[in-house]
């Protein structure tokens, strides 16, 4: 018997990430090739944005996706989030050249307060939320704090793009396929302070750290290349990453819902104090996923270099959190 459709809300549906994301969701890449979906698409009320959204929906229709069981356009999160199982919160202002993601904080904080409240009011209490819009960790924190009736663990931020970027850098350094690498972590904030950490990673079962054996490459090349990749793409394209961001969003939610078979992935999730990170900070952690739940990989040894990096990215998150405190009272 066919499965009942799942409802997926996507905000910023007419934006660049939306254009790379929606077709893949409708094709079954997000929730499985046997899982029908209903898309509930949110854009700002602006006439141009709504018209663009209508155009994207015409294209979705023209794909005749067998799994697309319905779609609706919205300008109000209170209708867009009604009864949803999954929320992909993409809609936000992207940064331009020379800006840092935290420069977007005040512009985007209001959006995530309103959307958190709407999720609380009308989404399923089991809704899985992924925040993509930047600054993603703090926006996820704002949405989580604005939705007290939904479990905090259901609010996550996207560090999967950083995880995937780090995988590719390592595969290229070692001249091996990406798929052979396991047990990579990206700790902290989705910002240049993030700490991609391959100390536990293996390739074909062998230690990546031992295979590379170059602390200077780690510190001076690998960590900054991964951390500044978003800016490098903006510099090259004149626009922020879109297809790779959409791909990472698919990876994140698919793994959360369908499981990772024991593989580690990075998710930005609310801390419960693990690894010395204060509770409620949305921090990039290594997790495995099974039966629709993520589980943190605990007990990893944190050396002095790593602790310093992890604190650096934590301090930035604490600063961002202090900057939005007034909005959460
Ligand atoms: P975009 O400008 O092309 O599209 C954003 C869309 O969101 C626009 O169509 C806009 O009208 C809409 N929007 C704005 N406010 C909204 C609201 N309140 N409700 C609904 N829709 C709203 O931008 P994009 O390139 O698609 O990027 C979207 C966001 O994703 C940006 O914040 C960007 O920085 C971020 N991003 C994050 C990652 C990550 O790894 N976490 C990666 C890439 C991009
Ligand atoms: C990215 O990492 O590509 C995105 O967060 C977009 C940006 O502003 O860098």
Automatic annotation (TrEMBL):
SUPFAM superfamilies: LDH C-terminal domain-like, NAD(P)-binding Rossmann-fold domains. InterPro entries: L-lactate/malate_DH, Lactate/malate_DH_C, Lactate/malate_DH_N, Lactate_DH/Glyco_Ohase_4_C, Malate_DH_type2, NAD(P)-bd_dom_sf. Keywords: NAD, Oxidoreductase, Tricarboxylic acid cycle. One of its GO terms (biological process) is malate metabolic process. Residues 160-324 form the Lactate/malate dehydrogenase C-terminal domain. It catalyses: (S)-malate + NAD(+) = oxaloacetate + NADH + H(+). NAD(+) binds at residues 12-18, 108, 115, 132-134. GO terms for molecular function: L-malate dehydrogenase (NAD+) activity. The active site is at residue 190. It is an enzyme of class 1 (oxidoreductase). Substrate binds at residues 95, 101, 134, 165. The keyword Oxidoreductase applies. Its EC number is 1.1.1.37. Residues 6-155 form the Lactate/malate dehydrogenase N-terminal domain. The keyword Oxidoreductase applies. Catalyzes the reversible oxidation of malate to oxaloacetate. NCBIfam families: MalateDH-SF1, PRK05442.1. HAMAP family: Malate_dehydrog_2. Belongs to the LDH/MDH superfamily. MDH type 2 family. This is Malate dehydrogenase. The lineage of its organism: Bacteria, Pseudomonadati, Pseudomonadota, Betaproteobacteria, Burkholderiales.
